[in-house]
Specification:
By secondary structure, the protein is of the alpha/beta class. It has helices at 16-26, 44-57, 82-85, 107-117, 131-139, 169-173, 175-184, 193-199, 204-211, 216-234, 243-252, 307-319; strands at residues 5-11, 30-37, 66-68, 123-126, 149-153, 188-191, 201-202, 240-241, 257-267, 278-280, 298-305. The longest helix has 19 residues, at 216-234. One of its GO terms (cellular component) is cytosol.
């Protein structure tokens, strides 16, 4: 089969990470070469179990390798988000242990190996802290030029954070890893918390319609996202947020991106008050200021996306009916 997309999904598997993985495993024309897990939402061991459980619920057990990665940030104590997703990261559903086991190779080594085996062919969808990718880069800096694209769910552009007033969770957990990845020169598309709140929040009648989809995958989706939904409703977000799954949806169908720009992005590592803040330099002429320090790597930063198209994709994936997206 000629796959249009070949992916590595790097994940701190909980709630919406699961939805993203389901997109990768179920969407026609997409091949997930590997799932790599990293600490973040919950400890990495549970992230790995959740990834394997997701593979099993997608009917792909034994077909997609899962590699466990970093269990802590590069320099800092681990911060977690069980208060959002439940202690198991899966809505306190406590699924039975999956049949498939994780591979013995470390996730960072697997990333390096796969990018060297298939230079220019693989895209990475990273929706956890960027620790695995930072370690992979330290092991082999040449991978910067061998990955086709890196889709990063993290940060925000001129918008509030979700763990502090200024920081999005993934960058806050390991700001040094995020800064390293953004400064290394990877071909990055950044999908920030701002885009996710504005264009990937599913609530109201749209969420009720999803609840009426009677498939195993849909029931699984609602189970793993139920604690996050409770958390959102108690904190002013009227629905299920889809930061990770809208990121992979853009990877699969880039036409979801309605507006983006290429900007330097710096991650704050020194100020505890603003730890993990993503400084997106959207100024038209920064070189005309005395503080300009020279040209810096630029990343594509998504600014607007198409909610209705994302919702159509989500509906198709949960129902298993991809006929609307079939090639003519």
């Amino acid at each position: 089969m000629n796959f249009q997309k070949r992916l590595i999904i790097d994940t701190d598997t909980a709630g919406d990470d699961v939805t993203s993985i389901l997109f990768g495993l179920l969407w026609p024309g997409v091949k997930v070469e590997a799932i790599t897990t990293v600490m973040g939402n919950i400890p990495v061991g549970q992230c790995t179990i959740n990834a394997l459980t997701t593979v099993e619920h997608a009917g792909r057990s034994g077909e997609v390798p899962v590699f466990e990665g970093c269990d802590r940030p590069l320099l800092r104590p681990l911060v977690q988000a069980a208060y959002v997703h439940g202690a198991d990261g899966m809505g306190e559903t406590n699924f039975p242990l999956p049949r498939q086991k994780a591979e013995t190779e470390h996730a960072a080594n697997a990333i390096v190996r796969l990018l060297n085996e298939y230079p220019g062919e693989l895209e990475i969808v990273a929706h956890g802290p960027l620790t695995n990718l930072a370690v992979a880069y330290m092991l082999d800096p040449s991978i910067v030029h061998k990955v086709k694209k890196v889709w990063v769910m993290g940060g925000s552009c001129h918008f509030r954070g979700n763990i502090t007033s200024t920081a999005e969770f993934n960058f806050y957990v390991d700001p040094e890893a995020a800064q390293m990845v953004f400064q290394a020169g990877f071909p990055i598309a950044m999908v920030g918390w701002d885009v996710c709140v504005r264009y990937a929040l599913v609530g109201g009648e749209d969420l009720e319609k999803l609840k009426r989809i009677d498939t195993e995958v849909s029931r699984f989706y609602h189970q793993v996202n139920r604690k996050a939904l409770e958390f959102n409703l108690a904190n002013g977000l009227e629905g299920v947020t889809h930061p990770d799954s809208v990121t992979i949806a853009m990877c699969i169908r880039p036409e979801l991106i309605l507006k983006s720009g290429h900007y330097p992005v710096e991650i704050e590592c020194h100020s505890e008050a603003n730890r993990g803040f993503s400084a997106v330099d959207t100024r038209p002429a920064p070189e005309n200021t005395p503080a300009w320090s020279g040209e810096r790597p630029r990343s594509e930063v998504v600014l607007e996306s198409d909610y209705r198209e994302f919702y159509r994709m989500l509906t198709a994936m949960l129902s298993g009916d991809f006929s609307e997206f079939a090639a003519p």
